[in-house]
Every structure is written in structure tokens, then in C-alpha cells.
């Protein structure tokens, strides 16, 4: 294998890795607390969480710490009911 062709393979490999990383990044759910609206009844009341709530909780787990830093969202995210809903949904509550 010539030096030039080895360099081309390295460039192709790097481009492939970057393309996969970009696809993964665009597939990630953005942090949007409104996405948790299906959980409002369960968090603010005594209703069990719906399947839609559990699905949205699982999507938004990477955002929980950011939500905890926001004084407007912290009382809801850090409430005993929110932790109960997360446990019912099988979502590990992160320590921030």
C-alpha cells in the first residue's frame, strides 16, 4: 500500500466517524420541558403515569440536570411525586 492511499483511507475513516456522530447528534431529543406535559397529571396529582409520560421521561433523562438548574422547573422535577413517577416508569433519577 502506498503512502498516498493510506492517507486517503484515514481521511475516509475520519469522515465516516464524523458522519455517524452527526447523525447520532441530530437523532437526539432536544431538551424541551414541554415534552414532559403528558406527565403533568401524574406529577401534580395522584394519577399513575401514562405510557406516553414514561416514554417522554426516558427521552428527556439527559435533560434532567439542566431542568434542575432552572428555578422554574426545579420544584416539579425535584418533587417527591416526580421521583415516584420516574421510579414507576423505570427511569433512574440522576444525581446532579
Task: Report on the architecture of this protein.
Pfam families: LTP_2 (PF14368). The protein has 96 residues and is mostly helical. Helix 3 packs across helix 6. It starts with a helix and ends in a 7-residue tail after the last helix.
Provide a short characterization of the protein structure.
The protein contains 6 helices and no strands. The chain has 96 residues and is mostly helical.
Distance between the termini: 51 Å
Estimated structural class: mainly alpha
The total of beta strands comes to 0
What is the succession of H and E elements? HHHHHH
Dominant shape: globular
Average pLDDT taken over every residue: 76
Approximate helicity band: 55-70%
Tally the helices: what do you get? 6
Work out the radius of gyration: 20 Å
Question: Main sheet, how many strands, which sense, barrel?
Answer: none
| Uncertain residue ranges | 4-27
SS strand fraction: under 5%
Keywords:
signal, 96 residues, lipid binding, lipid-binding, 6 helices, mainly alpha, Bifunc_inhib/LTP/seed_store, transport
Amino acid at each position: 500500500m502506498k503512502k498516498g492511499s493510506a492517507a486517503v483511507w484515514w481521511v475516509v475513516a475520519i469522515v465516516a466517524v464524523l458522519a455517524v456522530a452527526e447523525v447520532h447528534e441530530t437523532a437526539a431529543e432536544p431538551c424541551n420541558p414541554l415534552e414532559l406535559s403528558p406527565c403533568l397529571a401524574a406529577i401534580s396529582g395522584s394519577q399513575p403515569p401514562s405510557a406516553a409520560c414514561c416514554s417522554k421521561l426516558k427521552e428527556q433523562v439527559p435533560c434532567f440536570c439542566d431542568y434542575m438548574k432552572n428555578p422554574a422547573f426545579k420544584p416539579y422535577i425535584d418533587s417527591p411525586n416526580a421521583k415516584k413517577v420516574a421510579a414507576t416508569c423505570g427511569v433512574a433519577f440522576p444525581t446532579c
